[in-house]
Amino acid sequence: MANAEYSNRIPLWRDERVLKILAQVVSSILVLGILYWLINNFMVITRQRGMPLTYGFLDEAAGFPIKEAFIPYAPTMTFGRAVLVGLVNTLVVSALGIVFATVLGFIVGLMRLSSNWLISRIALAYIEFHRNIPLLVLLFLWYFGVFNKLPAVKQSFAFPDVIYINQRGFYITWPHLAVGGLVFLGFVIAGVILAVVAWIVLRRIREVKAIETYYGWVSLGLLILVPLIGWFVAGGKPLVLDIPVLKGFNFTGGLRLSPEFAALLIGLATYTSAFIAEVIRSGIQAVHKGQIEAAKAVGLRYSQILSLIIVPQALRVVIPPLISQYLNLTKNSSLALVIGFQELFAIGKVTINQAGRAVPVFLLIMAIYLAISLLTSVVLNFYNKRVQLIER
């Protein structure tokens, strides 16, 4: 009743609620009008210059080579195929970089908390060195200061019949599937799945019923035993080792990692691992000391305290900042352009020069990076919600 009387007394042009709504409507109209004018102006200009905002050029022949591709590619293939090669290169280096950075960051984070003065200071020096120099400088350091200084092919560093290292890259003995190899691969996948399921189920039973289930040993046994059965089922020779051999002026066979790829991977992994180490350290320090002291009081070994108490609780704290570091690593992979590794952004630049479509290509690259970031965030946030602590 009081509100009704208040509304009746104040005219609409002086009513604060009406004025706020009117201001929002006018602001929205102005913003949308400006956006429409900008987009329409841009579309008219691109049509006048013969560069419409379309993606039909992706079906045209690219005509440029790509030095390193993880999927088949030839210059006679389309621009769309070239962009796909760049995307795969980005995903491969980002995925491997995330794995290596996580493992290295976890180790350095634990070293940083060590009671040994020397180990702790070594970890501190590693973290401060990588956190206080730009990633670009670090990539130059690895590429021009390390990999470009490797010996020539004839003087390669050799780990006999396994790995050869020289200026042209790393040549690694690599297994390929032989006849019957798919059967063995199926057993390997089944072994991994069974090991994960056994780990989750037996660990849960141990937590609920407080009985020893030996989930670690059971999972390890499945991980070894099932592939071993697959090895014999496949006839005993499911894999063929492809050994690099020096022929003429270079090695043939095996798996080759170029110096550009290796420098980018190591640079990304070491740089990001320094930040992850600090994230891990903060997560571990977030675990209440009373729990650790209680675990020691009941006689748990340090490895048990680490695996059963510290790490499970620390992971729940560090996942959100880890997501940010993973996204940064993926975006930082675009710096590969400066050392010559052709990932998504580098191939996009060549595509712009060849097709003359700067805006569509940049929009495409932005959309791909946005999709990768959103997908990574969705997956890790889903995991974070599953494991986070629920408090009242």
Overview of this structure, please?
With 392 residues, the chain is α+β, with helices and mostly antiparallel strands. Helix content is 66%, strand content 7%. The chain contains 12 helices and 8 strands. The strands form 3 sheets. The protein has a 4-stranded antiparallel β-sheet. It has a two-stranded antiparallel ribbon with strand order 4-5. A two-stranded antiparallel ribbon has the order 6-7. A hairpin with a 3-residue loop joins strand 1 (157-159) and strand 2. The protein is globular and about 80 Å long. It starts with a helix and ends in a 5-residue tail after the last helix. The relative contact order is 0.12.
Task: State the gist of this model.
This protein is an alpha+beta fold. Helix content is 66%, strand content 7%.
Task: List the topology elements.
Layout (H helix, E strand, L loop, with lengths): L1 H8 L6 H33 L30 H34 L4 H15 L3 H11 L11 E3 L3 E4 L2 E4 L1 E4 L3 H29 L5 H19 L5 E4 L2 E3 L2 E3 L2 E3 L1 H27 L3 H9 L4 H31 L11 H12 L2 H30 L5
Antiparallel strand pairs: 1-2, 2-3, 3-8, 4-5, 6-7
Helix pairs in contact: 3-4, 3-8, 3-11, 4-8, 5-8, 6-7, 8-10, 9-10, 10-12, 11-12
Flag low-confidence runs.
none
Mean pLDDT: 85
Number of helices in the DSSP assignment: 12
* Main sheet: strands, sense, barrel: 4 strands, antiparallel
- Report the C-alpha radius of gyration, rounded: 28 Å
Please tag this protein with its features.
392 residues, alpha+beta, 4-stranded antiparallel beta sheet, 12 helices
